[in-house]
Write a structure and sequence with these properties.
The protein is of the alpha+beta class. The protein is built from two helices and five strands.
């Protein structure tokens, strides 16, 4: 799970860009027509970017675009299906799956 990369929780080295690097590495080694299905905690619609150090991250309007750099959004195709659900007690519990294509 990419939101734990670089957090040091599972013995990996501390790296504030570990998650971004992991997704970028997937882009680098994938074929030209590759597809990426990714589900991470999302706070985009609520304007929340959260880094709970040594635990996980919630990707909001600032961090989600960096995470998916070079990938083209593909699914869901309807705008209303891309909107975050109403807040829950723990934002990390909402992890929608989005599909991207290699750009």
């Amino acid at each position: 799970s990419v939101e734990h990369s670089g957090q040091g929780r599972y013995g990996d080295a501390l790296n504030p860009w570990g998650d971004i690097l992991a997704v970028a590495e997937a882009w680098c080694v994938s074929k030209k027509d590759a597809v990426l299905a990714m589900g991470v905690a999302s706070g985009v619609g609520k304007g929340m970017d959260i880094n709970r150090f040594n635990a996980d991250k919630t990707y909001g309007p600032l961090t989600y675009p960096f995470l998916t750099t070079n990938w083209k959004f593909d699914w869901p195709t309807k705008d209303e299906d891309r909107v975050d659900r109403p807040p829950v007690e723990d934002p990390a519990k909402y992890q929608p799956v989005y599909v991207f294509k290699k750009a």
